[in-house]
């Protein structure tokens, strides 16, 4: 899960808002960035806990037609 690009988009939006006198929007985007970062971290931790608990099979699938499957 690589959703960190959204943090860059939010930073760009905040910079635009600040540069154009939209202070309230810039503040709201700060809050939104914190929420997005928390959710990304939560997803990453959840995925890692599933890997640690054996919920995903990592590596190759020898039962397919030479294709690898990854979680």
Low-pLDDT regions? 67-71
Number of helices: 2
Gross morphology is elongated
Largest sheet: none
Biased composition (Gly residues): 61-71
Region (Disordered): 46-71
Report a brief summary of the structure:
This protein has 71 residues and is an all-alpha fold. Helices cover 63% and strands 0% of the residues. It contains 2 helices and no strands.
Notable characteristics:
mainly alpha, single chain, disordered C terminus, 71 residues
Task: Walk me through the structure.
By secondary structure, the chain is mainly α. It has helices spanning 5-19, 23-52. It is elongated, with a radius of gyration of 19 Å. The chain has a domain at 5-46. Helix 1 (5-19) packs antiparallel against helix 2. The model is unreliable at 67-71 (pLDDT under 50).
What topology emerges from the helices and strands here?
Elements: H1 5-19, H2 23-52
Helix pairs in contact: 1-2
């Amino acid at each position: 899960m690589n959703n960190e690009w959204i943090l860059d988009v939010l930073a760009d939006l905040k910079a635009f808002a600040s540069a154009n006198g939209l202070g309230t929007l810039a503040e709201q985007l700060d809050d939104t960035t914190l929420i997005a970062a928390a959710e990304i971290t939560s997803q990453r931790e959840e995925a890692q806990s599933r890997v640690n608990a054996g919920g995903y099979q990592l590596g190759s699938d020898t039962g397919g037609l030479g294709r690898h499957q990854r979680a």
